Amino acid sequence: MTVYVCEDSFDGILCGVYDAWMSRKGHDHVRLEIDGKEEMELFCQYEPVAVTPDKTEKVIRAIQEKISEAVYKKVYLASLSQESGRADMIYRFLIDGFCYGAIVLEMLHLPSVYEIFRLCRFVLNESHLLKEFTRFSRTKEGLLISKIGPKNDVLPVLALHFSDRLPSEDWMIYDEGRKRAVFHPADEDWVLLHMGEGGWREDLAMETDEEGYRALWKMFCNTIAIPERKNYVCQRSHLPLRYRPYMTEFQ
Questions:
Q1: 59 vs 54: CA distance, rounded Å
Q2: Which of 68, 104, 108, 140 is deepest in the core (most CB within 10 A)?
């Protein structure tokens, strides 16, 4: 078994797909893994995958032209998942995709298709919740800042949503787990940055209007609450505990 070790990124996974496919060793004799996510096994040959724009573009073009744009979107969403085995799941899905064409999305009885839909559903569910639970604080300079700690890499999905909702605002969303941030200048396109690429750490430490809104939120929640009807189990089902450290009203 030859294991192709991919970089933990969308481009890295696509380059792994390219190397595994072009090796001509047979799909049953190759496997993709994310670098550092799995323990090494005996009797396996490990091959590092070099990430190049040329390989990435070839795979993207092949998916869009030979399968469909919808399949390409599914592959991208699945790559944002936290699961360590997502690289090989995407590879198996593309094997079936190139075999059956665009209709592969309707073949939920195939294990590879089921797994991709499961990964996409997990990513979309979390991004949907964070569209509601994300809280912004405004600095004296007018920059809106938010911190999140998602399981999946949902920053690109949130960036598309908030660039449409807040097109004329300067805002930034910081993913604490991945040390990445999306920054949106007013009336311009958003950019995705690693925290080492700018002075965003200073922006995150700026004084904001958080204290005032925190008090308002707590006053609102206490005013509308009916003590006799409190149901903490129901609350947790609608608002999981892991989101609360990043929400103003729970500080």
A1: 9
A2: 104
In contact, 109 and 74? CB cutoff 8 Å: no
Tell me how far apart the 2 most distant CA atoms of the chain are, in Å: 67
Which among 122, 172, 128, 131 is positioned nearest to 151, based on CA atoms? 122
> 126-172: per-residue pLDDT in tens?
999 999 999 888 888 888 889 999 999 999 999 999 999 999 999 99
- Closest to 80 (Cα-Cα) out of 150, 141, 183: 150
Q: CA–CA separation, 167 vs 148, rounded Å?
A: 20
Q: Which two tokens stand for residue 93?
A: 């899905």
- The 10s digit of each residue's pLDDT in 39-63 is 777 788 889 999 999 999 999 999 9
Alpha helix ranges (H) inside 50-110: 53-66, 69-79, 86-100
Q: Tokens 């396109």 map to which residue?
A: 189
Q: Under a CB-based contact definition with an 8 Å cutoff, are residues 154 and 120 in contact?
A: no
